[in-house]
Amino acid sequence: MTYLVAADLPTAPAGDRFRALLARPGILQLPGAHNGQAALQARAAGFDALYLSGAAMSAQMGLPDLGIITVDEACFFIRQIARAAALPVLVDGDTGYGEALNVMHMVRSFEDAGAAAVHIEDQLLPKKCGHLNDKKLADPHDMAAKIAAAARARRHLVIVARTDAAASEGMDGAVARAKLYLEAGADAIFPEALTSGEMFRTFAERIKAPLLANMTEFGRTPFFTAAEFAAMGYKMVIWPVSSLRVANKAQAELYAALRRDGGTQAMIDRMQTRAELYETIGYHDYEALDASIVTTIIPQGMPQR
């Protein structure tokens, strides 16, 4: 899939395509894709939709996930991922980048950039990763006003309300907030940082709406598979930062080897080859658009000294 040359680019709005995926049986699996290359690789692996994490966007800019980045910076990532893979993308909207009017601006901006869905959380700035301690929550009615504003502004975007209340207000508080957000216009609910299968099952029993589970590594949630989340009553599951974690680990090892050895010879076997890269991004499809461009010949191996 290359967006300039594909004959099968979708014409339906991204939000409508996301809703169609939710209407299918089973759980919608949404791997995190932190850039266009990751989006293409996820599509090649067979995924039908993607997730874009605020933590992944921030980390790529060398920043912590504290609500620092702007709407325009988020849209830069949305555009490249939605364009590269032409898959529906659920985007992390943090706290909505402000109050009701700011949320409406975010919704329209995200839609224009190609997003299919957004989730908005009920934290106060500076917000934290949902799996960290001492999160400060917004008044539930203030959060409901943001959800109502998002629903009013959207043309097709799917609105997911995230609540971080389980850690401080318990299951009753999280459930009460979720019901209020659904009444305000949310299409789905994302209960963040649940810590046991029992909590996931209880929440699903008490909230009759599409639910999203977060299977982040190194957090408060034990490892569950997509099938296990489906059995507990969840319709969507994200692995928000997994691709970035793997890429960053490999990149750190590359730099260490380069500094140690004075070259990349010890890392060649771990690299994506030029041919593999060109295949992923459809290099020759782009080249074929203009017959005046000389066909590139990929070097076979490296010259010997």
List keywords for this structure.
305 residues, alpha/beta, TIM Barrel, 2 domains, five-stranded parallel sheet, three-stranded parallel sheet, 8 strands, 45% helix
Account of the protein in words:
With 305 residues, the protein is an alpha/beta fold. The chain has 2 domains: 14-240, TIM Barrel (Alpha-Beta Barrel); 248-287, no CATH class. The chain has helices spanning 14-23, 36-44, 54-60, 71-85, 100-113, 140-153, 166-184, 197-206, 226-231, 242-261, 274-281, 283-287; strands at 28-31, 50-52, 89-92, 117-121, 158-163, 188-191, 212-214, 236-239. The strands form 2 sheets. A 5-stranded parallel β-sheet has the order 2-3-4-5-6. Helix 5 (100-113) links the parallel strand 3 (89-92) and strand 4 (117-121). The two termini are 38 Å apart.
Question: Briefly, what is this?
Answer:
This protein has helices spanning 14-23, 36-44, 54-60, 71-85, 100-113, 140-153, 166-184, 197-206, 226-231, 242-261, 274-281, 283-287; strands at residues 28-31, 50-52, 89-92, 117-121, 158-163, 188-191, 212-214, 236-239. With 305 residues, it is of the alpha/beta class.
Secondary structure elements and their pairing?
Elements: H1 14-23, E1 28-31, H2 36-44, E2 50-52, H3 54-60, H4 71-85, E3 89-92, H5 100-113, E4 117-121, H6 140-153, E5 158-163, H7 166-184, E6 188-191, H8 197-206, E7 212-214, H9 226-231, E8 236-239, H10 242-261, H11 274-281, H12 283-287
Parallel strand pairs: 1-8, 2-3, 3-4, 4-5, 5-6, 7-8
Helix pairs in contact: 2-4, 4-5, 5-6, 6-7
